[in-house]
Design goal:
single chain; 340 residues; alpha/beta; Rossmann fold; Dihydrodipicolinate Reductase, domain 2; seven-stranded mixed sheet; six-stranded parallel sheet; globular; NAD(P)-bd_dom_sf; oxidoreductase activity
Length: 340
């Protein structure tokens, strides 16, 4: 007998919210969308009609109060996440929420408490853990194929800067971009970051100075098991979207990611060339689908997701420390965090 589908509502129908809704409907088994929400006049209705979703509204409370909704997928602006998750908890709705969890550490801690007290599932969208290449790296490290992991090296390069409207509420480059590296580094190394140094400056986009942000950054971090790592973040990649990582172990290394979008190389009189991955949705399509599948499976089984609100809070703490270090020019030692 087939189990009934998990009935979902998608809150926020911008580029990523629309993408998540499409993936839930076409790529994820055991899920259905019964309602879509967006405050932009007409947006929810248009998406509902395009996808054949029966319910739509411009008010998130309609989704939380809807008894047919089992879980909510929150893709609203980050500044609203804390309020959205607390509301979900109060109505007993399970939550998938995009990263970062919040922009303020105290808010993240409050969210974790609300999730724990309500007993709901809360998974945060650190999708690299679900990318097949990173997942394979995790398995190989656990199997001892490179010995003891000693060093993480990663870089996150975007082809250009988002508009000022996004930058002003993004939390800065470490919170918006490097936070992915902090999460996957913790996951692959299997340890917690205890100290970090952050460095950055504006190289290409002067408008970022008005928002106290940078377009190029580097962080160096230390782990509680003696390992170390560094992560570059850039909005200055003219050739395309570039996400790669290396794990150096005591007996070998792992390289994760590549630039090629397709296994096709063109050869002619001017040389050879190939198509580079154009954007994050192309690079991480499988990961985005697999993370939503994992969420639906966890809602059904009541198992804890492999990336939680507690993980997201730890990642935010590291990212905020990197930002602090960049501003004051000193390494920040992270104090042990009490159990959340």
């Amino acid at each position: 007998m087939t189990a009934p589908s998990i009935q979902c509502a998608v809150l926020g129908l911008g580029r990523l919210g629309f993408y998540h809704a499409k993936n839930l409907l076409t790529e994820v088994s055991g899920a259905a969308i019964v309602q879509v929400i967006d405050p932009l006049p007409g947006r929810a209705k248009d998406v509902a009609q395009a996808f054949g979703v029966p319910g739509y509204s411009d008010d998130v409370l309609d989704a939380f109060a809807n008894p047919a909704v089992d879980a909510v997928v929150i893709v609203t602006p980050t500044r609203t996440h804390a309020e959205m998750i607390k509301l979900a908890a109060s109505y007993g709705k399970d939550v998938f929420v995009e990263k970062p969890l919040t922009l303020q550490l105290d808010e993240s801690i409050e969210v974790v408490k609300a999730v724990q007290e309500a007993g709901i599932i809360c998974q945060v969208g650190f999708m690299r853990r679900f990318d097949p290449a990173y997942a394979d790296a995790k398995r190989r490290i656990a199997a001892g194929e490179i010995g003891k992991p000693l060093y993480y090296k990663g870089f996150t390069r975007d082809a250009g800067a988002p508009p000022p409207e996004f930058i002003k509420d993004s939390g800065g480059l470490f919170v918006d971009c490097s936070i992915h590296d902090y999460d996957i580094a913790r996951y692959l190394i299997g340890a917690e970051i205890t100290a970090i140094s952050g460095h950055g400056q504006v190289l290409k986009y002067p408008f970022m100075e008005a928002y106290d942000d940078v377009d190029q950054a580097l962080s160096y971090f230390e782990f509680d098991n003696g390992a170390a790592g560094d992560a570059e973040a850039s909005r200055n990649s003219p050739y395309g979207y570039d996400i790669r990582a290396e794990i150096i172990g005591s007996e070998g290394s792992l390289f994760i990611g590549e630039l090629r979008n397709k296994s096709l190389t063109i050869l002619n009189a001017t040389g050879s060339s190939y198509e580079i991955i154009p954007d994050f949705q192309t690079r991480f399509h499988d990961a985005y689908c697999l993370e939503l599948q994992h969420f639906i499976d966890c809602v059904r089984s009541r198992n804890t997701p492999i990336v939680t609100a507690e993980d997201a809070t730890t990642n935010l703490k590291v990212a905020l420390a990197a930002t602090e270090s960049m501003k004051n020019g000193k390494k920040v030692v992270l104090q042990p965090q009490a159990s959340l």
